[in-house]
Amino acid sequence: MKDTFERPVMMSKEDVTVMILSAKKQAGLTWEGIADMIGMSPVWTHSACMGMNAFPKEKAELLVAKMGLPQEAASVMVEPPTKVWEQSVPTDPCIYRLYEIVGVYGPTIKAIIEEKFGTGIMSAIDFDMQITKVEHPKGDRVKLEMSGKFLAYNSW
């Protein structure tokens, strides 16, 4: 009888993300281009490729085929995400500014949502977002549009 058990190596979501980023860079692709290849939005595609959303099976298989990834990657891409942030305050300037916006305007957003809908939240699951460039004489603008289903708090 063998004293040691040889553990099989399994691909993780992080492994798949690294492979996607590498294939994207090598092919000179954009997130819009990748999203077009699989028929999804660029925002959702990026989030799913970063492991923050689960791919529908057919979209995972299509991305694997289009980007030349190992077949095993598709089975990892369909797994539900475990959303983990590694730091409390982001240090990337772009991400920090979004964090700052929520810090400054979060209570305002919450108050206005409650006035218009009642006590509850905006879903980040039944959700979509678009990011567009708006030309402006004082400098181009970033336009973020988010739409999430309203979820009222339940009492029981």
Q: Largest beta sheet, briefly?
A: 2 strands, antiparallel
- Termini gap: 57 Å
What low-confidence regions span 5 or more consecutive residues with pLDDT below 50? none
Give the count of helical stretches. 6
Q: β content, as a range?
A: 15-25%
**What is the radius of gyration?**
20 Å
Structural class of the secondary structure composition? alpha+beta
What string, H for helix and E for strand, traces the elements in order? HHHHHHEE
Write the layout of secondary structure elements.
Layout: H1 13-27, H2 31-38, H3 42-49, H4 57-67, H5 72-77, H6 93-117, E1 120-134, E2 141-152
Antiparallel strand pairs: 1-2
From the structure above, extract its key features.
single chain; alpha+beta; 17% strand; globular
Summarize the structure.
With 156 residues, this protein is of the alpha+beta class. The chain has helices at 13-27, 31-38, 42-49, 57-67, 72-77, 93-117, and strands at residues 120-134, 141-152.
Structure commentary:
The mean pLDDT is 91. The protein has a two-stranded antiparallel ribbon with strand order 1-2. It is 47% helix and 17% strand. Helix 2 (31-38) crosses helix 3. The termini are far apart. It has helices spanning 13-27, 31-38, 42-49, 57-67, 72-77, 93-117; strands spanning 120-134, 141-152. By secondary structure, the protein is α+β, with helices and mostly antiparallel strands. It is built from 6 helices and 2 strands, in the order ααααααββ.
